[in-house]
Design a protein that fits this description.
Layout (H helix, E strand, L loop, with lengths): L29 H18 L4 H10 L1 H43 L11 H29 L5 H30 L1 H13 L21 H5 L2 H27 L7 H27 L5 H15 L5 H28 L6 H30 L1 H13 L9 H25 L1
Helix pairs in contact: 1-3, 1-4, 1-5, 1-6, 2-3, 3-4, 3-6, 3-12, 4-12, 5-6, 5-9, 5-11, 8-9, 8-10, 8-11, 8-12, 8-13, 9-11, 10-11, 10-13, 11-12, 12-13, 13-14
Membrane topology: Multi-pass membrane protein
Organism: Actinomadura luzonensis
Pfam families: MFS_1 (PF07690)
Length: 421
Amino acid sequence: MTAPAPARPSARPPARPPARPSARPPIVTGPFVLRLFTVVGSSIGFFLPFAVVPEYVERSAGAAVAGAANAALLVTTVAVELAAPALVARFGYRWALGLGLLALGGPALVLLATSGAWAVLAVSVVRGAGFAVTVVAGGALTAELVPAARRGEGLALAGLVSGGCALLALPAGSWLAGTAGYGAVFAATAVLSVLPVLTVPFLPGRPPAAPRGAGVLAGLRAPRLTRPAMIFAASAAGTGVLCTFVPLAVRGGPAWLAPAALLAQSAAATLAKWAAGRSGDRRGHERLLLPGVVLSAVGLAAVSLTGWSACVLAGAAVFGAGFGILQNATLTLMYDRARPEMFSTVSALWNAAYDGGMAAGAFAVGLLAPLTGYPVALLVTAGLMATAALLAPPDGRATAARFIALVVTSASVRRRARTTG
């Protein structure tokens, strides 16, 4: 009986277990949490007294100064946003954020002593400058703190904190003024804006050194940055129109319609911003530009049907979804296309597009609506917003052309019906 032959060694090495996918880098780190404290301070500091200051100054200086107070705040914000990258490059994130928060909150204490027109306007100018520096420096710092692979999601998270604070602070200011007086609003603004300065020393100090010619002018000459900014400015113009004129356009409808539409817009934008961040990080942010433009334009076109409450409500929600998508996709795309030393420039261009677009939309419809009525003015705005699809990837151009043609035809029909009726 022969012994069994020994087993031959296998020529193949044993199969290795499949490699485990590397863990996704975390978003919520210590510096990021500290950054969120400054987000809360700047958002509350801006919005808590926003609706209160005009009412406060109107009693002593009249309606013209009441309107000029927030106009000075917004105009200064846009102007200083474009100059802020140079300040950030010179002094770094800590000094820029600290000075911005102090300038945003500290001057509110002046209003405890006076409601004079010049004092209120001066306070508004200083506060606008402080807010501009805060959002530009803070936006660039957020982009630097978040891993590039999850930048859209991280920016969405910071945006949720900022938007949530704004949503609560705006009505809270009016409520606090009515229950505890104007002084309580101004004191709370100062404290809540300045308190986060205590976290600033623990944040990163300086952005990467920028080469000569890497400022705002260089950013304006870069189509890879200006195209997303212009797309977002178009949607921001619709936001300015919606927030300013929808309460006027639906005055004949149910009393609940205007606040419900504004709430639907805000809620949809918040949810869409988060969804766009997660989707864009996985599949690319550029592919979200066209859907964002289309939803924004279609939503505002539906809102123009002011005689139908369901259309106004649904349109506001659809518009909000498109605006939220563009809010995240354009900002993330601009950061992805820039070197870290250009992050302050990206933040400045995007924030200027946001504030400037809102102001331009409200101003233009304010001139157009007396001539055409609110429904036609809203519809024309939707058509103009749709032209932003021409700046999206090439497959957006045919869609934009069809939608613009439809809007022009609808506006002509409504205009003819209005003049003959």
